[in-house]
Amino acid sequence: GAGVSQSPSNKVTEKGKDVELRCDPISGHTALYWYRQSLGQGLEFLIYFQGNSAPDKSGLPSDRFSAERTGGSVSTLTIQRTQQEDSAVYLCASSLARTNYEQYFGPGTRLTVT
Amino acid sequence: AQKVTQAQTEISVVEKEDVTLDCVYETRDTTYYLFWYKQPPSGELVFLIRRNSFDEQNEISGRYSWNFQKSTSSFNFTITASQVVDSAVYFCALSERRDDKIIFGKGTRLHILP
Q: Which residues in chain B touch residue A33, judged by CB atoms under 8 angstroms apart?
């Protein structure tokens, strides 16, 4: 596709359930990023992939969060045993190479944990 | 550690006025990259500019201009003759060559009043 796509656009889940958020980056972009944006807040960097590997996972807020990327393309962010504080917009971005290149953002997934 | 400070949380100006958004950064690396992104009410972040640490030339793009000053660790953004469509949240961001993280400031919400 022409841009970064994310699915679902909205997700409402009950506390304690697991959720999977998907990101499809721009074709040919080797770098992929996940961010979290809480209501009215800035962007919190979660994780970065170069190809299929994630050199630094220290931005993930807890061990309930995990992410993977397969085939150098699609990435999935999984949140296990969701908590209310996980409610936020989860943004995905991709870039041609690593972090010093401009990033192109997807529309985000709005996650609400009830 | 890297840090980006956008001290102005919210700014309101009347249409056609000029407005400057401040960004101050901290880094220990000698090679780094600075960015500005715009997040309109629709929510999708849009890349505006990328600047590397070795290029201190100011940049002008239409009504937008950027002033990069290493001496004060600032990368300020000015909108000339503001328009209502400029209303958005603007984020400044920093990445270091030696790291894979990109750190965003908390953003400045800009209201352009008709």
A: 102
Per-residue pLDDT of A17-49, as tens digits, reads 999 999 999 998 989 999 999 877 788 989 989
3-state secondary structure at position B3: strand
Residues of A in contact with B43 (CB under 8 A): 89, 107-108
Q: How far apart are CA B81 and CA B68, in angstroms?
A: 21
CA B104 to chain centre: 10
Contacts of residue B42, Cβ cutoff 8 Å, sequence gap at least 6: none
- Among A residues 41-70, those touching chain B with beta carbons less than 8 Å apart: 41-43, 45, 48, 50, 55-56, 59
Distances (CA, A) of B73 to B53, B91, B92, B106: 10, 16, 13, 17
Residue A37: C-alpha distances to residues A17, A107, B44 (Å): 20, 12, 12
Is residue A108 over pLDDT 70? yes
Single-letter amino acid, residue A39: L
Best CA proximity match to B23, nearest among B69, B76, B93, B64: B76
Give chain A positions within 8 Å (CB) of B44: 105-108
